[in-house]
Amino acid sequence: MASILNVGTSALLSLQQAITTTGHNIANVNTEGYSRQRVNFDTLTPQLSGGSYIGSGVATDSIERIFDQFLNSEVQSRNSAQSGSQAYYDLASRVDSLLADPDVGLSNTLEGFFSALQDVSNNPGSLPERQVLLGEAQVLADSFHYLDSNFRSIGNELNARIETSVSDINSLASSIAELNEQVVRATAGAGGAPPNDLLDTRDQLITELSGKINVTTVAQTDGAINVMVGNGQALVIGFSAQQLQTFDNPYDGTQTLVGIAGLSGSITDLGRFLDGGELGAALDFREQVLDPAINQLGLVAMGLTATFNDQHQLGLDLNGQAGGDFFQPLSATYTANPNNSGASSISVAISDATALSGDDYNLRYDGAQWTLTNLSNNVSQTGAGPFSVDGLQINVAGLPVDGDTFLIQPTRQGATLFDVVLNDAESFAAASPLRSQEALTNIGSSDIDGLTVTDAFGLPLASQVTLTFNPDALGLGIPGYDVTGIAGGPLAYDPTTESNGKTFTLGGFDFTVSGIPQDGDELIIENNVNGSGDNRNALALAGLQTENLLNGGATSYQGAYGSLVADVAVKTSQAESAAKTGQVLLDQSIAARDSVSGVNLDEEAANLIRYQQAYQAAAQVISVADQMFQVLLNATQR
Description:
- This protein has 4 domains: 2-66 and 601-637, no CATH class; 72-290 and 555-588, no CATH class; 332-409, no CATH class; 434-527.
- The protein is built from 11 helices and 27 strands.
- The chain has helices at residues 2-27, 69-100, 106-122, 127-189, 196-210, 277-312, 414-417, 495-498, 536-543, 557-597, 601-637; strands at residues 37-43, 47-49, 52-54, 58-65, 215-219, 225-229, 233-237, 240-241, 244-248, 256-261, 267-269, 333-336, 343-350, 361-365, 370-374, 380-383, 387-389, 392-399, 405-409, 434-438, 447-453, 465-470, 480-484, 491-492, 502-506, 509-514, 522-527.
- The strands form 8 sheets. It has a 5-stranded antiparallel β-sheet, with no helix packed on it.
- Strand 2 (47-49) and strand 3 form a beta hairpin.
């Protein structure tokens, strides 16, 4: 009877644990990250009696957490990818909206500016058209400033996001390290039995951490788990958590970087190694979208400034004065690393604004020579300097030491500093400084046209330039034009084969001669005195709109801006697609994990009924044992 009682008691105790565990599952059906638990039963050691083994009942072998590490790791990986794609899309879509918005984008303001310029060319002597041109120029400058200001505002918000993400990562890392300690102690205190709820809590924190940054985990034999980020940088090792730190970019104090402090206290930049999650997305967005957008907008501003100013300086204003700068001249931006210990310095000049690429460059001294690296394509060149690259002339000076570094960002400040400096409508140089004509006494059909000034040096002309046709200008029977008033003659011209037109260059101007002249016919080039009605330079300025002047002659102003808009739009679309796909994959991973680890209320209800019935049966066994014992007591009393 004692054995029967023991059997019933063991059954009651074991089933009670099973019912409690089932209730625990039901209670946590909505708990995020909870893994259902299951009681595993084991028979007690049987007792030998009368030559046979009699069962001794049941015991709870373990309370198992139904958990699949592979499926859980898959959820963490998908969560990191989806969180990163969504954050990247949210940020990129804002830049895309700014650039594509017709009310604030650059396309319409560029069109308005050149439309006003065309109006001036149609009526070059009228002040109202010139005033409208200056107004449209200011609108254009405002558009550059508005876009640039919004980009930099997004950059400030990005800094705040990075700060918040790093703070969250550090907090989660500390919590994981604390849970590691609790898990190890609880496991040791229970003789190796895992503390299931603590494990769930820790896994949930790691999943949350994966939403901030891509993580890799490695389990230790004592139950602790190590967490790595980036290229293997330890974030949590056992009971210790390493703290990420934010710091200002040494080259640009407006940018926040992410690093980790070394033993010496110096901070190592980890930005290029961190990926995934909200932090990785923020860093990728800045590198792939925001900084290139600022640079490309600056490229348009600097290219427009340089080419428009160059052409404007080749004209004459209403007062007969040579044109000056229309826009504020812009220069390349570069910064020395504040940790440079040598006495080195550099200077960066824009030798050809049409060849600028919008890329950034790193110039570093290795103790023997300088290395200039394009940070977009990693193409580099080495030497003692100077360096010529993409329209830049980079000179080095001083006494450098190993490690001296400079960051060259030629177009980074272009849109910020873009401005109109011409404030007097009469000073707009619409006229060409030279004009040409055929002498009235000519008897042939000679003609001169296409007079274009290419260099204002040497203007105005010291005297009238006269081209006189001479059948023997270059020798007996070799026709051409004798030139007076400027060096460069005679000019070979054969009317029998070149009457359709031949172009010449003299001094800083080009022209085309055509027709069939007679001996002594003259063509005249002279200063354009009182040329207020001349519009040739205004037409040349208007023609800049459609010329392929930027990116080495590959695209126009609007084409370069359109490429920027298209590039951001493509990256935004890709991010949107990745976010949607990532959400589907994440949902699938969560469903696969929950199919194994999730609580099924129908299953738990069935288990509850099954355990309840078994519990009632076990109670009946104890009741029977009690009745047998009472019968035995009653029998012995007689």
